[in-house]
Amino acid sequence: MKYLLMFVSNDETTQRSEAERAAISEKIGTWWTEHSQAGRILNGEQLQGADTATTVRHDHGNVSIVDGPFIEAKEEIGGYGLIDVPNLDAAIDMARSWPWGGVVEIRPVFEMGQESQG
Amino acid sequence: MADSARLRIDATFRHEAGRLVGALTRLLGDFDIAEEAVQDALAEAVARWPAEGVPERPAAWLQTTARNRAIDRLRREARGREKLALIAADPLRDLGAVPQAEPDERLRLLFLCCHPALSADAQVALTLRAVAGLTTAEIASAFLTSESTISQRILRAKRKVAAARIPYRMPDEQLGERLPAVLAVLYLMFNEGYLSSHAGEPQRRWLQEEAEQLAELLTRLMPREPEPLGLLALMRLHLARSPARFDPAGGIVRLRDQDRSRWDTAAITRAIRLLRRAASLGRPGPYQIQAAILAVHAEAPCWEATDWPQIVALYDLLLRHDDTPVVRLNRLIAVAATAGPQAALAEAEPLRDALAGYHLYHATRAELLRALGRGPDADAADRQALRLAGNPAERALITSRLAGG
Fold first, then answer.
1. Do residue A89 and residue B79 have CB atoms under 8 angstroms apart?
2. What is the pTM of this model?
């Protein structure tokens, strides 16, 4: 079963010192390599900050282009990982051990043959 | 006849429901179909048994019917074919003889229903339906909400179980972390059986027994965890008093008026031993403390001889774990006994906003006002309680107080 892990920053993660960031980045490297080699991570990327985001909004045929992320929030998506694990508990275990901390949203990926859930 | 058939349905079905849902879920890997099929079987029993009589082997009848209804549902589904093959290969023949060594199917189901990825509301509703075999209508009446609300809640939860693939298994590592939700649901189930708002049926013993059995299984599964032991002791202390809780007409007898010689003293002793075992693990928690409060009551020869300072101290400890308006309300009776009704009444005031819709808030105030000789105010509070009470036995108690009884 595929899930998208969305790694979200919050107050705690944005207030870290350079040294702390460097130490955690190293742990992330190990975490990522380990899960990739085990076939659990299919792909994933770190994103640039929300201040670089552009939002394109469709509204009944009109298209508007706006500077910034689609929702204004303190918490912003900093990266993602597409994983393939047996079930939600396995996905939760991965999210739990994510070295960066912050918030991780887990979304199951729609699979062919699965009924639409509205 | 209709009543006795209904009782047989309760006794048979409620016990088998969770086990059947569990076995079918494991077999099909589809919780939704398993759960619906078992509910179908219940509906069929309710429709047929009163007229046709209870089958000779009711549990086997339910199993066969649930299995057939699962097959019906799978036939209607696009993806049902491979699952039909599964069910054909395994007729659930050995369902009645689950080896004792295996953790009970219902316990596994309980942990599924109480999965942290589901909302607390959904956990309770799902557990009552899948593990305890209550119908949506019964759950709705228990929580004073509409059937469509409960039905939506269950539907949404089951969709998430399937869509996000929440596994059907005993959690091995995060067992402790998932425990509070499971304990809360079990205690709710027990209380619903102990004093249900179900019209005309003040006490549903079978529901209490199911909750107690599941709690006991939990203690065997997690022998180093004190809170399941605390919950089990709490339930058993309640049960030990239940012979004295109702008068022959089905009316409620308050703790202070109960004939304590009718309490099951042997059961009380055993429950207190259980509580000591929990305490020896050195991690107090809300269920152990609530059980301790009941134990103090159980050891008192009469209401007046209760160790009230001890009960106030235990409530203060409980507030450190679980500071809720209801806990504060329950503490007031002990406060009245130690510091007087005037002090207790003053402490009731700040709870008004939170508890204005709760009948026991008004009933407690009525009791305090009456102790202060403020009869008309007490009657007004009792009338307010009466407007809010759903349980017939509780309504009768308040009515008799209003009549000066």
1. no
2. 0.78
